[in-house]
Amino acid sequence: MAQLHKRFTDSQVKNLFERYLSKEVERKYLQEILGIGKARFFALIKNYRENPDDFSIQYNRKVKTRAISQRIEKNILKELKIDKKLIKNKDVPLKRYNYSYIKGRLEDKYDQKISLPTVINRAKKHGFYLKKRPKKAVHDREVLTNYAGELIQHDASHHLWSPPAKEKWYLITSIDDFSRFMLYAKLIKKETSWAHIMALQTVFLKHGVPYRYYVDSHSIFRFVQGRDSLWRKHYKLTDDVNTQWSQVLEDCNVKITHALSPQAKGKVERPYGWLQDRLIRTCVRENVTDIKHAQRILNQELHRYNNRQVHSTTREVPHFRFQRALKERRSLFRDFTIRPPYQSAKDIFCLRVNRTADAYRRISINNLLLKVNGLNPRDKVNLRIYQLNNKLSEVRFWLDNKLIDVQSIKNSDLQGVYF
Questions:
Q1: Which residues make beta-bridge pairs with 169?
Q2: Residues 6 or more apart in contact with residue 333 via CB below 8 angstroms
Q3: Which of 256, 300, 306, 332 is the most exposed place for a label (fewest CB within 10 A)?
Q4: How far is CA 124 from CA 73, 99, 120, 128, 307, in A?
Q5: What is the pLDDT of residue 236?
């Protein structure tokens, strides 16, 4: 019920009190009319009796309510100004203010606790507010899978993740559709097949092998006739050529579905939006110029997203939803095993090249000639190449389902093999 002074005038209350004092109306009726309790009623009657001429129910505040200190006000405006500068930067994929981020920023970095409405009110008062744009029709956000591991959404996004670095990086992520748990997130300077294969290795060895991957039609994931045929024979049709990435999934018996439109990738784009929003804002404030520093911040935000953030669609924290699915055996993840004749994970998570031995029992990778043990002229050998580090790779030579040789070769000598 609204406050007494907002529902009655002084003269109205005085009139009711006079009628009570003259015993025209009983107290219980006046309490119901005024909407107050017994203690409040007698307190007002006492004040009226002591000074009926100056009696008033009007409430005059001596201090402003919800007042915040000048230091807090200064920090709110400081953070809002940083966001405004980012929004105006056309190279940065931020189109709105994030008041929740600023509230958390004040708590974490300044040890200043404030409410979200306080931040929003200051933003509106000082011009740091943008009207919400009309919502566009988007892909259905409903969870359509019934099991963890039934569908892994995988993608890469290229943005200026840290404006102080003045260069764009790629963010590769893999997310479980059922739980919305982010299985993988890494920043890289160059998008390659090898980077995406390493994402597969991390997910498979840590969580197990899922049922299906959901990706777009990027050339790393899918050969498309017309678009990719500059380096292929023109009689090849879409899906006639297995990409390096898809060959890894084939070896692991994982199915692949390709998104036919950007809207169809909505479930993975939303976590991207959440991560990129917080990642960019933090990188700017910490003046991040190094990708390793940015990765540390990304790891922190990933932990927040997986373990603390309630997902807007599932209404659950991704980690707990994921773990409950595993506990209840609602999972299509299976243990990673190496299918014979292969002997090591390096034979699976690798780049593959086929070569034919020359008359001297050698094979060539562009200008690099390699002498291979156990090879005869005209033998067709399958090379499985695993990058050990930035300088060295292990090449495993397979002939007729047998490992015949293993060599370590400098990456700089493996021209034509695109990691």
A1: 159
A2: 148, 149, 207, 208, 209, 210, 326
A3: 300
A4: 13, 11, 6, 6, 32
A5: 43
Q: Which three-class secondary structure state does DSSP give residue 183?
A: strand
- Residue 39 class from Cβ within 10 Å (0-12 exposed, 13-18 middle, 19+ buried)? exposed
- Contact (Cβ atoms closer than 8 angstroms) between residue 178 and residue 147: yes
Rounded (10°) CA dihedral 322, 327, 329, 335: 80
Alpha-carbon distance of 223 to 217, in angstroms, equals 8
Identity of the residue numbered 305? Y
Cβ count within 10 A of residue 344: 15
Helix and strand tally (H, E) in the chain?
A: 12, 11
CB distance 345 to 205 below 8 Å: yes
| 235-293 pLDDT per residue, tens | 444 455 789 999 999 999 999 998 865 555 555 556 667 788 899 999 999 999 999 99
- E-assigned strand segments in 165-291: 169-176, 182-188, 212-215, 255-258
Distance CA 281, CA 262 (A): 25
Residue whose entry in the numeric block shows the structure tokens 């380096």? 231
Prediction pTM value: 0.76
Contacts (Cβ under 8 Å, ≥6 apart) of 168? 158, 159, 160, 161
Element spanning 49, H or E = helix 38-50
Q: 317 and 307 in contact (C-beta within 8 Å)?
A: yes
Q: In residues, how long is the chain?
A: 419
Amino acid of residue 247: Q
In this predicted structure, what is the pLDDT of residue 66? 59
User: What whole-number distance in Å separates Cα of residue 177 and Cα of residue 151?
Assistant: 6
